[in-house]
């Protein structure tokens, strides 16, 4: 079956010209199964008739390279080939199952529904005794504990919430290990919580030891504990949740900490969300039967993911659900906010419950994009003047919604972003620039889909989830010190000690 696929690849490559790398260098069976195993290529659908095109292979390589932090060539270059054979964790990098809903939020697993968690070390490895494994596990768990307000205790019999086992080869969970090298461990999210270490590795406990054959147990254990607590892989290379083996591991990265906070420290938001009515209601607001709790409810910028933000008339507008905050500068809130955005942008239909993205045109008018293809235009005093659709911007019909729109100060063009690609619109010429859409991956180190993009004091910033990046227009990539946490840097939210250290780090 694989042989057949490879032949298809060669055939397709001959008739298309832009895939020369794949043509010269088709991926091996082993490399194909790597791409599928970690979620970069969809699993074959049914029978062998399904073949990967050079385009889909090149795209898969590009995604794998992007996740690993390599140049996104889409080709099987030497660095990429090396990656296929690097020691790593066996858990998927990307959830590629077609049923997984596309979400702008992070792909996070579920958290434990309790704060005290037990663990049990069932055995040691042939090279690392059980009591040493127990010691190292304790240290590893303590690294994660404060960031989820968790506590851990060891049990010596029965079943712990997290069970640590050394096993080799096929060990009955459908994810067989592969002998020495490559996959060294994997772990399951709550409520399963098992951590399996490949017993065919030579496990060691001295990260200074520079033996290629020896795998440092602690470095791998800290990563696998992350999975057992519900964390997914991260493409941030310095983070513990980066999928490829890195040694030594001494502390968690901000990326790991933010992930934990999102999993474990947002009860307040979850409580509120679970008591809310459905987000979209066609009932006019003033007749909506609201409980007292709902009426008093106001989201907290420090606790929630805002929907979008934008600079309008020189101030920062932050949108979350039906609320808007206005800041005159970083961390300087205007008095009297939040307000309902319906009270600020007058004339917006009352059923509108969320602002998808918003930007200011060159003439000072404001465009609000809603869910779907509709938008509303407001004059400079925030009064609705007309309704339109994405067709007015020459956005193709198949695009159901934009994620972010912003006007660049670099070239005075309007960028219209849909998840992984973007168009460039020339407001003065009244038309789309040629050669678009382009891939978001062209903007190196910028995450996508982005929740917002703004120009602030001459710099371009991208926002996603709880983090933001500053973009270098000349280098066409994000500045290396980013991302930083949005709430602490922009919204004057209280920091934890870890965040303080990170923010005051001799950064930009
Ligand atoms: Zn992993
Ligand atoms: Zn296993």
Hetero groups? zinc ion
Find the CATH topology of the largest domain. Answer: Hemopexin
Radius of gyration: 25 Å
Order of strands across the widest beta sheet? 1-5-6-4-2-3
Helical coverage, percent range: 10-25%
Mean pLDDT: 81
Count, helices = 13
CATH superfamily of the largest domain: Hemopexin-like domain
Quick one: how many beta strands? Answer: 27
Q: Give the overall shape.
A: globular
> What's the end-to-end separation, in Å?
52 Å
Strand content: 15-25%
The parts where pLDDT drops under 50 for at least 5 residues are 1-23, 98-107, 268-295, 496-508
Summarize the biggest pleated sheet: 6 strands, mixed
Secondary-structure class: alpha+beta
> What is the count of structural domains?
3
CATH class of the largest domain: Mainly Beta
State the CATH architecture of the largest domain: 4 Propeller
Q: What is this structure's SSE topology?
A:
Elements: H1 2-15, H2 20-24, H3 29-37, H4 54-68, H5 78-84, E1 88-89, E2 116-121, H6 130-144, E3 151-154, E4 162-167, E5 183-187, E6 195-198, E7 202-204, E8 214-216, H7 217-228, H8 254-264, H9 267-275, H10 292-296, E9 308-312, E10 315-320, E11 323-329, E12 332-333, E13 339-340, H11 341-344, E14 357-360, E15 366-369, E16 374-378, E17 384-389, E18 404-407, E19 414-418, E20 421-426, E21 431-432, E22 438-439, E23 452-456, E24 459-464, E25 467-472, E26 477-478, E27 484-485, H12 486-490, H13 497-504
Parallel strand pairs: 1-5, 2-3, 2-4, 4-6, 7-8
Antiparallel strand pairs: 5-6, 9-10, 10-11, 11-12, 11-13, 14-15, 15-16, 16-17, 18-19, 19-20, 20-21, 20-22, 23-24, 24-25, 25-26, 25-27
This protein binds zinc ion (ZN) (2 copies).
């Amino acid at each position: 079956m694989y042989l057949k696929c490879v032949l298809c690849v060669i055939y397709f490559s001959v008739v298309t010209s832009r895939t020369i790398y794949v043509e010269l260098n088709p991926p091996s069976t082993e490399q194909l199964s790597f791409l599928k195993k970690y979620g970069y290529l969809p699993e074959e659908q049914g029978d062998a008739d399904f073949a990967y095109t050079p385009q889909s292979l090149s795209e898969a390589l590009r995604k794998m390279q992007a996740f690993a932090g390599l140049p996104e060539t889409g080709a099987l270059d030497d660095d990429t080939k090396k990656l296929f054979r690097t020691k790593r964790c066996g858990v998927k990098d990307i959830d590629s199952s077609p049923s997984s809903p596309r979400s702008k939020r992070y792909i996070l697993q579920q958290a434990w529904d309790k704060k005290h968690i037990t663990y049990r070390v069932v055995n040691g490895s042939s090279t690392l005794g059980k009591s040493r494994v127990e010691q190292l596990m304790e240290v590893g768990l303590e690294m994660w504990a404060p960031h989820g307000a968790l506590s851990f205790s060891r049990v010596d019999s029965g079943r712990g919430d997290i069970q640590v086992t050394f096993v080799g080869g096929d060990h009955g969970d459908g994810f067989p290990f592969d002998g020495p090298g490559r996959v060294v461990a994997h772990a399951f999210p709550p409520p399963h919580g098992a951590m399996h270490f490949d017993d065919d590795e030579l496990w060691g406990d001295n990260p200074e030891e520079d033996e290629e054959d020896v795998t440092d147990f602690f470095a791998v254990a800290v990563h696998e504990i992350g999975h057992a607590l519900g964390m997914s892989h991260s493409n941030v290379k310095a983070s513990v949740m980066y999928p490829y083996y890195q040694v030594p591991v001494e502390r968690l990265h901000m990326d790991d900490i933010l992930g934990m906070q999102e999993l474990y420290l947002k009860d307040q938001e979850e409580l509120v969300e679970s008591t809310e009515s459905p987000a979209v209601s066609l009932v006019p607001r003033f007749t909506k039967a609201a409980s007292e709790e709902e009426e008093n409810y106001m989201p907290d910028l420090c606790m929630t993911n805002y929907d979008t933000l934008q600079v309008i008339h020189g101030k920062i507008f932050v949108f979350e659900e039906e609320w808007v905050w206005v800041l005159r500068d970083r961390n300087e809130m205007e008095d009297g906010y939040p307000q309902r955005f319906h009270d600020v942008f007058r004339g917006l239909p009352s059923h509108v419950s969320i602002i998808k993205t918003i930007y200011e045109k060159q003439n000072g008018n404001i465009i609000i994009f809603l869910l779907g293809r509709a938008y509303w235009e407001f004059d400079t005093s925030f009064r609705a003047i007309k309704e339109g659709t994405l067709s007015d911007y020459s956005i193709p019909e198949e695009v159901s919604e934009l994620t972010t729109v912003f006007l660049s100060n670099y070239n005075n063009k309007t960028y219209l972003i849909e998840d992984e690609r973007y168009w460039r619109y020339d407001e003065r010429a009244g038309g789309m620039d040629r050669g678009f859409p382009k891939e978001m991956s062209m903007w190196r180190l910028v995450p996508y889909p982005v929740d917002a993009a703004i120009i602030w004091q001459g710099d371009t910033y991208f926002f996603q989830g709880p983090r933001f990046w500053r973009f270098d227009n000349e280098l066409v990539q994000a500045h290396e010190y980013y991302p930083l946490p949005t709430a602490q840097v922009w919204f004057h939210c209280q920091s934890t000690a870890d965040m303080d250290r990170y923010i005051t780090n001799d950064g930009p």
